[in-house]
Amino acid sequence: MSLEELYKEVILDHYRSPRNKGTLNEADIELHRDNPLCGDEIDLYVDIKDGKIAGVSFDGKGCSISQASISMMTEKLMGMSQEDAEGLANTFKAMMQGEDPQDEDSLGDLVALKGVQKYPVRIKCALLGWNTFLEGLKSYREKHGEPA
Ligand code: ZN
Asked: What distance in angstroms lies between residue 35's CA and the mean position of ligand 1's atoms?
């Protein structure tokens, strides 16, 4: 199996069996965003306790890239500190925008989405969940008086 095929399998696996799908009852971050270019829609739920991501889930529909990317994101963010989670989101964005982030190793399975950068229209699909998370985190901090 080529690396490209392996990556495709990872994406399809998350698309077919999304992780952490559903709502969270006590979410500190609850945000609906869409990507009208492609028809992707997501609702993101994040529960923050003691500065850590204590729970994260999503609901959504759309293309395999958007849904797989957010499914992988929820797996990664669980248990992370806000700062690490934000760092990972920015590293992932840098990779998708064609930069070579120094800490690419921290991305793990997420490199499976790197090939998407060849299709500029799909980059928005891959970033939908992550941008929603960063936006939600920013307003959470503003609400709680922490520097954004
Ligand atoms: Zn899409």
From this structure: 7
The string over 33-71, giving b where at least 16 C-beta atoms fall within 10 Å of a residue's C-beta and e elsewhere, is bbbeebebbbbbbbbbeeebbebbbbebebbebbbbbbb
Question: Which tens digits make up the pLDDT trace of 8-53?
Answer: 999 999 999 999 999 999 899 999 999 999 999 999 999 999 999 9
DSSP state of 89: H
How many angstroms does the Cα of residue 66 sit away from the middle of ligand 1?
A: 5
What's the gap in Å between 110 CA and the centre of ligand 1?
16
CB 28 within 8 A of CB 140: yes
Q: State the fold for domain 3-143.
A: Sufe protein. Chain: A (3.90.1010)
d(CA 117, CA 119): 5
Q: Domain-by-domain residue ranges, the chain?
A: 3-143
Cα 130 to ligand 1 centre (Å) = 13
* Å from CA of 140 to ligand 1 middle: 26
